[in-house]
Design goal:
With 257 residues, this protein is an all-alpha fold. The protein contains twelve helices and no strands.
Length: 257
Amino acid sequence: MSPTLFWQVFRLQVVMTLRTPDTLHVFVTAPLYTTLFLAITEHADRRDLAGFAVLAPVLMSLWSMALMAGGELIGHERERGTLEAVVATPARYSSVIAARIAAVTLLSTLSLAEAWLVAWAGFGILVTIAHPALFLLGLLLTAAAMAGTAACVSALFVLAPSARILQNTLSFPFFLLGGVLVPVDYLPHWLQPASKAVFLSWSARVLRAAVSPGPAHGTTGALLAVVLLGLAGFAAGTLLIDRILRRVRVTGTLARM
């Protein structure tokens, strides 16, 4: 897909998302989760963990939005009767899906501003970023990995009998394995190896290091893991979607896939 076409698809999806209120539910839940997590740290007299409590709703919003987009883009196209027209265009459909998911994911990064404002206005906590460059790089790579993984998930949703059930299944288990609020080191030892396959665990490690004072050790390997896992998800999603489309073209069941 050319950069011009990617930008056009990206911009179209942003407009469509802003006009679909149910897609923007994360902007309602992010402040609520932030309030809950900060109330826990304040009650425990652990204001030093406020940065972690602010980051958790942001990562949750990114994944929830990507999961929502990945699960419903193809379904909505099928319901509107536009799926055949989109697939018939010269652009590779898997690339179109990736561009649309990227737009939704990037839009969900606005939840960071919400979480920061809740901490400042509601609790009088000013969360500072000790390593701004690392934080920005980590956030952008996390958003890209979200889009790549959601592209893979979208293909699975096509094959699943009910995408909504799969969406609910892949939310909170990923938050737990990804160490979104509680670091992976506090998980049971038998569960910790599984978390290494979830890019959220590496993203959380990078972002926590970025908001923590002192040197940010071990972030290079974590950033590389985010990139590799995101690319793996995108490659798997592209392969699955292309295979599914080839199959339904042969069987003539595109509208019912």
